[in-house]
Structures are given as C-alpha cells and as structure tokens.
Amino acid sequence: MDETRSVVNLLEEPEFSKLSGAGRRAKNAGAEMVITIDVESREEVNDYYTKARNAGAKILSLPHVIEKGYEFTFADPDDHHWKILYREEKTPLIKSFFDGQDSSGYVKS
Questions:
Q1: What is the pTM of this model?
Q2: Summary mean pLDDT of the chain
Q3: Residue range 51-57: mean pLDDT, rounded
Q4: Which of 27, 43, 58, 68 has the fewest CB within 10 Å, making it most exposed?
C-alpha cells in the first residue's frame, strides 16, 4: 500500500472466491480479480455502498464487520469485482511480490 491507497491481490482460486463473494468464472471469461479501495472509516464504506446500490451495481456482499475491519463487495456493469474496505490497522495486506528483490528485479541472495 502506498500513498495512492492502491492494492493488487494475486490470489489462488479458493482465496479469490472467499474475497470476491463469487465463484470462479468460466475459462476465457475475463480476468479474475478484486479491485480494493481502502477507506478511512465505516461511514465511508456505507457511503460507497449507498452510491453503488443507487447506481445499480450488483451487490455481492452487504456491508459487514470482519476481523479488525468492515467491508462490502460489488460488481460493476462489466462484472469487475470491487471491495470497499475499512481496516482498523493500516498494515500491509500482503507481502509484496517484489520484497527481497533489488531494483533490477533479481532476487537478492
């Protein structure tokens, strides 16, 4: 996570299904990913929920409490899955793919 509050999750199928609230897509049906927006409060999650619902988004999970946070998930008209997430502790969600590599991309020994 950086100052843009952007996160990219590369997940295996069981984790994708759990995170997205939906099962695996058919082969060649598009990318399987969840776009996560990390927000500053539960109220902001609820605001996004109201906007998404009013815009006609397909709600995949209602706003709900999770361990140390609060979230909901929806799909846009192109079936991209979005998670709006509030976390009480702003620690990295996952270890970076690039941890342990130098600037050339080679793994440090």
A1: 0.62
A2: 76
A3: 95
A4: 27
